[in-house]
Amino acid sequence: MEKIPDQIGYLILTEDGAVLESGGELENDERIATIIIDLISLSNTVDPLAFGPNENFKKISITYDDHWYVICMSNKKIYVIKRLIQNNTDEGNAIAV
Amino acid sequence: MEKDLDKVVDEIMATPQINGCIVADHQGLCLAAKGTAHVDSAGIIVALSEQACKIQPNLKPPTICLETDKKLCLVQRHGTITGAIFKLKP
């Protein structure tokens, strides 16, 4: 996780929100861990019509002006990474999709 | 009264790859919904944006992007209004 370019913090969580590993600005940040777990459980209930019942989200990103959080789930673990946005555009909360 | 909002929603829906759009107020009540976006999602979308705002409450509300294999859901809050766009991946 530390090798990811532009990362300024990371968290690896279990499905119930316990912190397995952490580093950088997110070191032992249980407050953010709880928020992320709530966010994931909420995201599972978003629009069953637009997203079919078998279409689970594979990535969630939360974008601020100069940094973004990426949340992914793999092998029953939740990976959260905080990354800097390098090319500052004037578009505000622009998303690189 | 909703004319302006409807116009904005229609404009969004006219954009290629977009198949749904929903706008809700701070209480989670739906103000407008078009395409695949269901009126019932309004509350969840507002809850989602409120939850994301808690991460860094001192900064302005972030844009949330939920991603599946083929689709995207973008959620952004502006003041008391929250908007979500359902989009196909390019």
UniProtKB/TrEMBL annotation, chain A:
GO terms for cellular component: lysosome; Ragulator complex. It is found in: Lysosome. Keywords: Lysosome. GO terms for molecular function: guanyl-nucleotide exchange factor activity. The keyword Glycoprotein does not apply. GO terms for biological process: cellular response to amino acid stimulus; positive regulation of TOR signaling. Belongs to the LAMTOR4 family. This is Late endosomal/lysosomal adaptor and MAPK and MTOR activator 4. It comes from Papilio xuthus (Asian swallowtail butterfly).
Automatic annotation (TrEMBL), chain B:
GO terms for biological process: cellular response to amino acid stimulus; negative regulation of apoptotic process; positive regulation of TORC1 signaling. The keyword Cytoplasm applies. Its main location: cytoplasm. GO terms for cellular component: lysosome; Ragulator complex. It is found in: Cytoplasm; Lysosome. Transmembrane segments: none annotated. It holds the Pfam family LAMTOR5. It comes from the Eukaryota. Keywords: Cytoplasm, Lysosome. InterPro entries: LAMTOR5. GO terms for molecular function: guanyl-nucleotide exchange factor activity. SUPFAM superfamilies: Roadblock/LC7 domain (SSF103196). Belongs to the LAMTOR5 family. This is Late endosomal/lysosomal adaptor and MAPK and MTOR activator 5. It comes from Papilio xuthus (Asian swallowtail butterfly). The gene is LOC106127766.
